[in-house]
Amino acid sequence: MAPGVPKQLGVRLPENEEVARLLLEKHRSMLEKGLTDNLSLTLSTAYRNVCGAKEHIRTLKDLLKIKGVGPWVIRLVKESFPESSPDLFPPKIKAKGKKGNGRTSNFGASDCSVSIPPLSSQGTSELQPSSTPGSAEFTSLDKDTDGLSNSILAMPPRLCNEKFLEAYEVVLVLDDRETFGSHGMRVVSNIHSKFRVPVEIKRLPVGDGIWIARHRRSRTEYVLDFIVERKGVTDLVSSIRDSRYKDQKLRLKKCGLRKLIYLVEGDPNALHASESVKTACLTTEILEGFDVQRTTGYPDTEKTYGHLTLSIIDYYSTNFSSRASTSRVCLTYDEFVKKCSDPKKLTVSDIFALQLMQVPHVTEETALAVTELYPTLLSLARAYSMLDGNTREQEQMLNKKSKMVNTGASRNIFKLVWSEG
Description:
This protein is an alpha/beta fold. Helices cover 43% and strands 11% of the residues. It is built from 16 helices and eight strands. The chain has a six-stranded mixed sheet, with helices on both faces. Strands 1-2 form a two-stranded antiparallel sheet. Helix 6 crosses helix 10 and helix 15 packs across helix 16.
């Protein structure tokens, strides 16, 4: 028997009506195209629990906490989700009549093709999504962040009435250990020639690619608020197994740059560990706040680096005049290297965070939230001891103190400390 058409339910919180409506519309739309009973039941459960939620569902992270909402539902609604927090790469609008046209749901099928109009007199361009099914779409960078100072990206210094491209040249810098096999110099040359942007090779202390704004007169280099970590799917599987994956992401989070981009190259479906790769990407993007870009190979990666560079130039050209005086100031390149390379950088708190990330349900973001409250294992153990043996309170303590620590992580961390402490 075919699944019945889902009925509209009352929503407990008015703030959640838009999210509930999105799930209901998705469910009805998929029923028209054919939907299995199991998937229909999954959507019905998610919709019912969203309608009954007692807390405002502001973000995808909040939605993921709702019972019955799993990774499949998140991927289904991600592009249309009414995200309240500003994002540099806002949700992309799926072309009418196209299927699988999104970075999340069509892993490895991207060709990153974007139609680029001629550059303006200032060297900027507006990127328009390609109509090619499955292409990665780069939209104009978020411009509606007034009053949200913690969301505004760092800016290089501005003198008098300088315009961004009059004062600075943007350079894509790739790590000299960035491996493109025999395609190495050709990739650099291709990005430079196809996108008309400077590309340089340096030894980076962290990440595989950054963007610097070089002042045209003083030649001072400022690191723009973006960094890329590039992983081939085979290397990603290896790094997940030997814990480099979590360590590298923690280093990225502590490097001082705001926009963290995780570029995964290759098709995971060709690997035995394909589900591990997909789960890692989903966690990295939704739970840890990275922007995950997926490419099929070297040519695709070239295009991604090129399009990202043009989008970054467009963002700074648009916002430099209005925000340079109120935003954080970009680190100089030397300051960036020192911050990331300082041998004292790996503190006791850093080591504690790495230990916490071995605990089930504990992400990098969760671990950092815990270490902000309790920098060492001893300080956390003392906090537990103050609850005088009340196991329930001890298990819930971290969850009550930080929204970044869910109930499962809070309970598992307590068990780790008390069973091994």
